[in-house]
Amino acid sequence: MTVEPGKIDEHPPDLSIRAIRGLPEIRPGDDLAGMLADATTYEDHDVLVVTQKVVSKAEGRLVDIDFDDPRGHKAIVEDESVRILRRRGDLIISETEHGFVCANAGIDLSNVEAGQAALLPVDSDRSARRIRDVVRARTGAEIGVIISDTFGRPWRRGVTDVAIGSAGIGPILDLRGHPDALGREMQVTEVAIVDELAAAAELAMGKSAGIPAAVVRGAPAEWFRSGGVVDEIVRSPSEDLFR
Amino acid sequence: MTVEPGKIDEHPPDLSIRAIRGLPEIRPGDDLAGMLADATTYEDHDVLVVTQKVVSKAEGRLVDIDFDDPRGHKAIVEDESVRILRRRGDLIISETEHGFVCANAGIDLSNVEAGQAALLPVDSDRSARRIRDVVRARTGAEIGVIISDTFGRPWRRGVTDVAIGSAGIGPILDLRGHPDALGREMQVTEVAIVDELAAAAELAMGKSAGIPAAVVRGAPAEWFRSGGVVDEIVRSPSEDLFR
């Protein structure tokens, strides 16, 4: 069968992703939310994805660390963990107070001044709400905000960005009860759209260019609601088969 | 400090994602690659993301299944698995012959005709190469192709799309030895860009509209090289802490 050529070029892209360039190096106490609000124009239903590192820096979540002393690094990781799942060499897979399972309790050494490490925000959903509120107050736009971080995964090599905080956008898109294209009830029912948005934004930001945020435009209105990552994405130990 | 307003609006989006609409229901033996080649125009360095389900259908990877008999479903899952990791109720987390760890060996019941289930492609990297070759032959464009599927993850609720096959685009972007924005060597070194691209494409395709493919435009030229998902993304049991 033949499909009409050029068909998809008749409609605009469903989504676009634009990195926010030109922000200065962020330091403790900086008004990151205000800088992000001023850095571009926003439309309703834009999704602003901000990397954990600049949020942690602005919130002063930095600790001194002696890189010549592996015990120092280990002590900080253990301090930021509520449960250690695995150890191999210097690598610790642990659960943070938020409930995130990740390497080294999410403590980050890259793109941080020498001698310092960045801890995760204390409450990354609250960090997202603050940015959302400031953008709304300054621009009038009702946007979603995602705080992203870079996690490894079991079974698959390579890291991807996921959401560790969100505001204004529902972390999980619940399709339970929706029919599929053939009219049958969906088997796959709960899509972690904030994780997919964090991954999409990472593609535009990269890791070595110092770009700390990106705007995803084109998300459907029905994705926007209240709810946070810690409540909706973190799987409770009782329903988790791998803890 | 003040950032010049409107700064990011001066440059075009870094990435855009466009769903491919208008494809018919795919059946065993259909020339899916040809249909995808004809369905739109391509530019060099576009990434075409195609869902596993239509690839499996076109390749005839369908089996009859009696939904009233849970033993029938279980037998098919076990048949498609080389190792069972966990069981809970009807859910089986297992490793497929490709090395993917996922629920029910990746066997899919939604958007498939009643009474049938779709198995994973036998060699999903080869499936991607075939589509890449046909698009190149018909359009002249050098594109990347990703076969995507929807997987759950431990520790986090909700599913996301990941890559189960690829061609023309390097599954892992290796940043080892690259300096970060502050000139220090990167801590995070290997980014699973094909998984992030699969996730980004899912956002434009959705799960209930019957859209089986999307084109991501704007990927940097250096992402394009040979290599497949099974070789580069599947983590060997010896380096895996959770198998």
Care to describe what's here?
- Two copies of one chain form a homodimer.
- Mean pLDDT of chain A is 89; it is low at 1-9.
- With 243 residues, chain A is of the alpha+beta class.
- Chain A has helices at 32-39, 52-58, 70-79, 124-139, 193-205, 229-232, and strands at residues 15-19, 47-51, 62-64, 81-88, 91-96, 101-103, 116-118, 144-151, 160-167, 173-174, 190-191, 213-217.
- In chain A, 24% of the residues lie in helices and 24% in strands.
- The first copy, chain A, has two domains: 7-59 and 121-235, 60s Ribosomal Protein L30, Chain: A, CATH 3.30.1330.100; 62-120, CofE-like fold, CATH 3.90.1660.
- The first copy, chain A, is built from six helices and twelve strands.
- In chain A, helix 1 packs across helix 4.
- The radius of gyration of chain A is 19 Å and the shape is globular.
- The longest helix of chain A is centred in the middle third of the chain and has 16 residues, at 124-139.
List the keywords.
2 domains, 5-stranded mixed β-sheet, 243 residues, 60s Ribosomal Protein L30, Chain: A, homodimer, 6 helices
Q: Evaluate the radius of gyration of chain A.
A: 19 Å
Instruction: Give, in spatial order, the strands making up the sheet with the most strands of chain A.
Output: 1-12-2-8-9
What pattern of helices and strands is seen along the backbone of chain A?
A: EHEHEHEEEEHEEEEHEH
Distance between the termini of chain A: 50 Å
CATH architecture group name of the largest domain in chain A: 2-Layer Sandwich
What is the tally of helical segments of chain A? Answer: 6
User: For the report, how would you describe the main beta sheet of chain A?
Assistant: 5 strands, mixed
